[in-house]
Amino acid sequence: MSVFTTYLQLGFFHIFSLQAYDHLVFLLALCAPYVLRDWRRVVLLVTSFTLGHSLTLALATLDLVNYSPRLIETLIPITIALTSLLNLMQAGRATLRRPEPAAPAGQPLVLALPNLLAVGFGLIHGLGFSSYLRELLGPQRRPVVELFSFNVGVELGQLLIVGLILALGYGLIRGLGVARRDWLLVTSGAALGISLVLLLG
User: Keyword Membrane, does the record have it (predicted)?
Assistant: First the structure.
């Protein structure tokens, strides 16, 4: 098996695993306001998150930045809590009943507030990923292929998770008639609760 394939799988199964439940809960909160027809926006949102965590993952893995693992363990649930609170604040708005543009007219979609927040929160989550990757790499100092393939694996895992979340939301909203507002309230409330447990634990 090639180095690329090995680290691709490691990245995929690092995110697509119950051991990464904090990142999974963040993705749930991130995608909660959207439905299946919004999949293009969601892909862009998740890719924005990936850009953020890819940057800090590379910097930390290459020892170009120093950070406190304990601080990152605290900041990750804070990103979940803030994302969940933003969702709860918009519950009941017209956006839940009728889609509206993700960015003001004339503004690039990638500069919409949710995407900018995803990039910022991704910077924090990337530092969380880096501890695991540094353990795998050992003393290696120029792991270009490993970093790239690991990030690709994480992105593929994230897209699969997001697809499952959107499919579940579609089944409940369109199949069982669950109100979109209720879906947002329940998922965001659950994510907020988990983030508080992580913060207090």
Answer: yes
Residue type, 66: N
pLDDT tens readout for residues 156-184 = 999 999 999 999 999 999 999 999 999 99
pLDDT greater than 60 at residue 77 = yes
The one-letter code for the residue type at 61 is: T
In order of 11, 70, 145, 156, 175, the CA distances from 23 in angstroms are: 13, 16, 24, 14, 28
69 in Cβ contact with 131 (< 8 Å) = yes
Average of per-residue pLDDT values in the chain:
87
SS3 per-residue string spanning the chain: CCHHHHHHHHHHHHHCCHHHHHHHHHHHHHHCCCCHHHHHHHHHHHHHHHHHHHHHHHHHHCCCCCCCHHHHHHHHHHHHHHHHHHHHHHCCCHHHCCCCCCCCCCCCHHHCHHHHHHHHHHHHHHHHHHHHHHHHHCCCCCCHHHHHHHHHHHHHHHHHHHHHHHHHHHHHHHHCCCCHHHHHHHHHHHHHHHHHHHHHC
- And the tokens for 136? 């795998």
- In whole angstroms, give the CA distance from residue 121 to residue 118: 5
